[in-house]
Amino acid sequence: MSQAAGAGRRVYRSGSGTVALVAAGAMTVFLLGDAVLRAGFGQMLVLAPGILLVDWIIFAALYAPTVHTDAQGITVVNPLRRAEVPWAQVRDITTRWQLTLQLDDGSKVVAFGGPALRPPRPRRGRGADAERHVPACSDVELIRRDWEAAVDRGPATGQVKRGWNLPVVLSLAGVIAWALLALMVGGSRA
Q: Deepest in the core among 30, 40, 82, 138, taking most CB within 10 A?
């Protein structure tokens, strides 16, 4: 699903990722609240890292992966890595199960989240209109249009930038640090 995020910038994220993250957050609040009521605040702090690790997995695998497009290029954010690709470096955009960018240097950038091709749904209703499929503009088609518009504007320069998905990696480091602290505190009470 695409959302406008500023002038000419689009963000594509799987809708199921948002639903899963909200459901996991609600379950976390319930479980940690139950732990406070049954065992106290201190014990809840010891139990929290295990629950938060499950939330982190849902966040990293389902919510964090996105695809961003703007006039300069496309950014693919995967669970642990990200790639910023100028449109001039893109040779082709394909999709089967996920979006794949074929780059000029022969390499590929695969998006593990974001848009995917979906078959058109038949319209519901009566009459001749119900038989026809109304082609909706899919997220992949919008990305292709952004790419084609950038190619039409002329050559642009820039290199592909690859790096870590810092919000996801740093949040994992926080959960691990909390877990180690909880083990030290929990172990000293035994």
A: 82
- Determine the residue type at 162: R
Cβ atoms of 67 and 77 within 8 Å: the answer is yes
DSSP 121: P
DSSP string, 27-91: HHHHHHHHHHHHH-HHHHHHHHHHHHHHHHHHIIIIIS-EEEE-SSEEEEE-SSEEEEEEGGGEE
Q: Is the pTM of this model over 0.85?
A: no
Cross-strand bridge partners of residue 76:
67, 83
d(CA 181, CA 5): 38
Residue 69: which residues within 8 A CB-CB, separation 6 or more?
9, 10, 12, 75, 142, 143, 146, 147
H-helix or E-strand spanning residue 167: helix 166-189
Q: In degrees, to the nearest 5, what angle opens at C-alpha 23 toward C-alphas 118 and 183? A: 125
In degrees and rounded to multiples of 5, residue 104 shows phi and psi of -60, -30
**Angle formed by the axes of helices 15-39 and 41-58, nearest 10°:** 170
Please name which of 82, 87, 112, 88 lies closest in space to residue 100, comparing C-alpha atoms: 112
- Taking residue 174's Cβ as centre, other Cβ atoms within 10 Å add up to 13
